[in-house]
Amino acid sequence: xxxxxxxxxxxxxxxxxxxxxxxxxxxxxxxxxxxxxxxxxxxxxxxxxxxxxxxxxxxxxxxxxxxxxxxxxxxxxxxxxxxxxxxxxxxxxxxxxxxxxxxxxxxxxxxxxxxxxxxxxxxxxxxxxxxxxxxxxxxxxxxxxxxxxxxxxxxxxxxxxxxxxxxxxxxxxxxxxxxxxxxxxxxxxxxxxxxxxxxxxxxxxxxxxxxxxxxxxxxxxxxxxxxxxxxxxxxxxxxxxxxxxxxxxxxxxxxxxxxxx
Length: 261
Hints:
By secondary structure, the protein is mainly beta. It has helices at residues 49-58, 250-258, and strands at residues 2-5, 11-15, 20-23, 38-42, 69-70, 81-88, 91-92, 101-107, 112-122, 128-137, 143-153, 158-165, 173-179, 182-187, 201-206, 214-215, 221-228, 233-242. The chain has a single domain, classed as Beta-galactosidase, Chain A, domain 5 (Distorted Sandwich).
């Protein structure tokens, strides 16, 4: 499933039987304004997002408590669990707003496809860029497929980075995998402010055609990059897992990630 959530700050939520997450909408701008993907962990099986949002209407921290899964991933202003952004002069240039509109392209039990629209912003003094983010959610997989279309002026091409927040401030990182077209990590929960966590999180991006993954100089992100022209699709996948729902080890998670290339 995937849907706009007007009852909760313009979130846009997505989910299959293994993973769930959300993108931030207009009502959250400034708290935060971020393209980052907020990963939710859960046990395999049923869809839970609607239940969690309903619970949050009475208790705003409902989905920060474990109800067979929870929101325990800190995004802040970052790529979160697998967003992308232009990389200009070594700096990630985030959109100036959260997503502002959306289109549902397919909506069924075997596939959900939606597009989130980010209005034009200045990636530099001379480069104006906008983003249409197309996400495909399929059942029985820990990964979502993404087709990001950046339209820009002021440059013949742009380097785009898809990546994952490494949470250096929370010191959560346990193991990481850097390979051509792959950045994956295995970490403790990144936000333990509500209740103690158990289990580990796996998060990854897979970018066909990208070179070796790198860690940004500030240590915040692991990224994979590829150069595109205006209007050329930037294709990749992002994925996540919870050790309580499987896979249960870094090695098993990294092997699953490698199979996505």
